[in-house]
Write a structure and sequence with these properties.
Largest sheet of chain B: 6 strands, mixed
Oligomer: heterodimer
Distance between the termini of chain B: 41 Å
Largest sheet of chain A: 7 strands, mixed
Helix content of chain A: under 10%
Order of helices and strands of chain A: EEEEEEEEEEE
Strand content of chain B: over 45%
Helix content of chain B: under 10%
Number of helices of chain A: 0
Radius of gyration of chain A: 13 Å
Shape of chain B: globular
Strand content of chain A: over 45%
Largest interface: A-B, 26 and 24 residues
Structural class of chain B: mainly beta
Chain lengths: ~110, ~110
């Protein structure tokens, strides 16, 4: 059981470049999330999705876009990379049922924008 | 507003001492509460969760947390710290009204020999 898989693990981007962070889960979870983690700031929610075809903004959505065409995949797109987007990005998924809402996390993508 | 507050960004205890990590949340309805642990360069791993079945929740690695509705708190404890407990700990809340999980800013736990 792979759980939540993120690719790539590391990436260096130049300012203005674009890239897509991939996330896929094999647990048939309805809910999926993208967080960014900056030192001392905890995890900030970028975007989330409650099911295929449905996405919504989190706390820090500016500069990012997402799509959810399937239950399994939830890619995060950076169109014009900026140094402020240097961070560690985590994808997570969970069931929607009340008793099983804990999130399962991928291993993270460490992104540096120079 | 939905928020999760962890008091103390860094806690240091001696090996064998009590560990207490604090978490308070804002919610007008009983939430679903979680503690996660993150070891260096790794993702987050669930330690324990509260889902209204019992106010005292036991998790992995000897950790437990108590839900106190009157104090809107969900503090994490462990009676005797071990060197392997050194990590970052995050409190999180699932807000069903908004269908999302909000995390606290984290507490880095250091263990002194």
């Amino acid at each position: 059981n792979a759980g939540v898989t993120q690719t790539p693990k590391f990436r260096i981007l130049k300012i203005g470049q674009s890239m897509t962070l991939q996330c896929t889960q094999d647990m048939n979870h309805n809910y999926m999330y993208w967080y960014r983690q900056d030192p001392g700031m905890g995890l900030k929610l970028i975007y989330y999705s409650v099911g295929a075809g449905i996405t919504d903004k989190g706390e820090v959505p500016n500069g990012y876009n997402v799509s959810r065409s399937t239950t399994e995949d939830f890619p995060l797109r950076l169109e014009l990379a900026a140094p402020s987007q240097t961070s560690v990005y985590f994808c997570a998924s969970s069931y929607s049922q009340a008793m099983n809402t804990e999130a399962f996390f991928g291993q993270g993508t460490r992104l540096t924008v120079v | 507003a939905q928020s999760v507050t962890q008091l103390g960004s860094h806690v240091s205890v001696s090996e064998g001492a009590l560990v207490l990590l604090r978490c308070n949340y804002s919610s007008s309805v009983p939430p679903y509460l979680f503690w996660y642990v993150q070891y260096p360069n790794q993702g987050l791993q669930l330690l324990l969760k509260y889902t209204s079945a019992a106010t005292l929740v036991k998790g992995i690695n000897g950790f437990e947390a108590e839900f106190k509705k009157s104090e809107t708190s969900f503090h994490l404890t462990k009676p005797s710290a071990h060197m392997s407990d050194a990590a970052e700990y995050f409190c999180a809340v699932f807000y069903s009204s908004a269908s999302k999980i909000i995390f606290g800013s984290g507490t880095r736990l250091s263990i002194r020999p």
